[in-house]
Amino acid sequence: MERLDTLVTGGKVVSSQGIQELEIGIKKGRVYSLTAPGLQLEAARIIEAKGRFVLPGCVDAHVHTRDPGLTHKEDFATLARAAAAGGITTIMCQPNTVPPINNVQMFMQVLEDWPKKSVVDFAIQAMAEPGNMGEIKGLLDAGAISMEFIGAESTGPMLMEILRVVHENGGLAGLSGGDGGYSQFIKRRSQEAGRKDMSAWISAWPGVHEAVGVARVLLLTEGTPYRFHFHMITTRKAVELIRQAKNNGRNTFTAETSPNYLLLTEEDHLRLGPFSTVLPRFKTQDDVDAVWEGIFDGTIDLIDTDHAPHAREEKEAGHQDIWKAPTGIPEIELSLRLMLNEVNRNRLSLPRLVELMVEAPAREYGIYPQKGVLEIGSDADMVIVEMEREKAVENGELITAPKYSPFHGVSLKGLPVMTLLRGQVIMEDGKVTASPPRGNIVRPRR
Ligand code: DOR
């Protein structure tokens, strides 16, 4: 056999199907060989992974970049470095930049800019809204990985029309479950009554609104072939509606949640204050239990982050008036660690984690098997983890620009110690390598 560029040896390789001791040969950025241990293959570089697990690089299908337009919150370089530190090698970026990615010209602008900054690969999620129906075909043809409905307008009367156009052009639609209209009313009433506290903020987003939104979409799309994905499912009622639809044979949609909704409740909003505000907000322990049940029985298809950083000063304004704190939490750097910790707590297996955080997002968004798996010919994206390593989350050590997390101070067991993108090491022992960014766009296969 020809000399390999890199051989990853001694590790236990994890896929959704199980765990196997395999040596991974890499050539020209792709997986070239998968062999039983001990063949002593020749390689320019050997990466010793003895006692460690090798996972395909995680795929985060829900990430908010602030670049362009809001780089005081976080720029693309920092976002991508935080991803690499967290074992994530592909990020799918939401379009709510300034200006938003809702036309082909903006798509081309970020496509020109992001590779200069990104140490990980990225996909572009474009915006679908009543005003840009004429752009949808062009955006999908250019390689947008999904069309995203952001804002009450799009999920209102135009929902079906936008879904139809996305479908006719071979696309996938990303939807938030929530029904935001009533919340805006509660918020206004609360503000008029002079309330500025966290309890009032919590009350403005009743959990049931999510189920109302999910039910509406499921009812309206019944009998259609439209492919769509529910972002951030966080409540028992929504999980139940989705389960029921899937049990009835609906198979054109998928659903996600994030570690936040598996690990935090309303109590944490009260404890953590404005730095914890995010939409959807954290719910009750009963909701958390139901989301876990959804993970166990496959009602929830994938886990990603909704990484949404805001500047510390912006969040701090919420101490005086909670409505002033912009909603969103940085998360990308910790999602794998949080879920590895749950594996160590025996809540789920490593293969199921790989299914939820790597394989399912890659499949659903049409980039499998280039991404999402370590098989011959796939991109050699991987993350090597030490399951026994325990480390506390420290805000000050985070790479994400605003350096805060609801998990500050929490000790997590299971640590990514090396990340490779297309065969190149981009993170080692928590340090993201300084080499020039090599991130590329990933386009879906349609
Ligand atoms: O709280 C949120 N903030 N939820 C979202 O889905 C968007 C995000 C943002 O962009 O800040």
Describe the structure in your own words.
Helix 8 (208-221) packs parallel to helix 9 and helix 9 (236-247) runs parallel beside helix 12. The strands form three sheets. Strands 8-9-10-11-12-13-14-15 form an eight-stranded parallel sheet. Strands 3-2-7-16-17-18-19 form a seven-stranded mixed sheet. Strands 5-4-1-6 form a four-stranded mixed sheet, with no helix packed on it. The protein has helices at 76-85, 104-117, 136-142, 152-155, 159-168, 180-192, 198-203, 208-221, 236-247, 259-263, 266-272, 285-297, 312-316, 335-344, 350-364; strands at 4-9, 12-15, 18-21, 23-27, 30-35, 43-48, 53-56, 58-63, 88-93, 121-128, 146-149, 173-176, 228-231, 253-257, 302-303, 382-392, 411-421, 424-428, 431-432. The chain has a single domain, classed as TIM Barrel, CATH 3.20.20. It is 33% helix and 23% strand. The structure holds (4S)-2,6-dioxohexahydropyrimidine-4-carboxylic acid.
Question: How is the secondary structure organized here?
Answer:
Layout: E1 4-9, E2 12-15, E3 18-21, E4 23-27, E5 30-35, E6 43-48, E7 53-56, E8 58-63, H1 76-85, E9 88-93, H2 104-117, E10 121-128, H3 136-142, E11 146-149, H4 152-155, H5 159-168, E12 173-176, H6 180-192, H7 198-203, H8 208-221, E13 228-231, H9 236-247, E14 253-257, H10 259-263, H11 266-272, H12 285-297, E15 302-303, H13 312-316, H14 335-344, H15 350-364, E16 382-392, E17 411-421, E18 424-428, E19 431-432
Parallel strand pairs: 1-6, 2-7, 8-9, 9-10, 10-11, 11-12, 12-13, 13-14, 14-15
Antiparallel strand pairs: 1-4, 2-3, 4-5, 7-16, 16-17, 17-18, 18-19
Helix pairs in contact: 8-9, 9-12
The chain binds (4S)-2,6-dioxohexahydropyrimidine-4-carboxylic acid.
(4S)-2,6-dioxohexahydropyrimidine-4-carboxylic acid (DOR) binds at residues 64, 96, 278-279, 306, 308, 327-328.
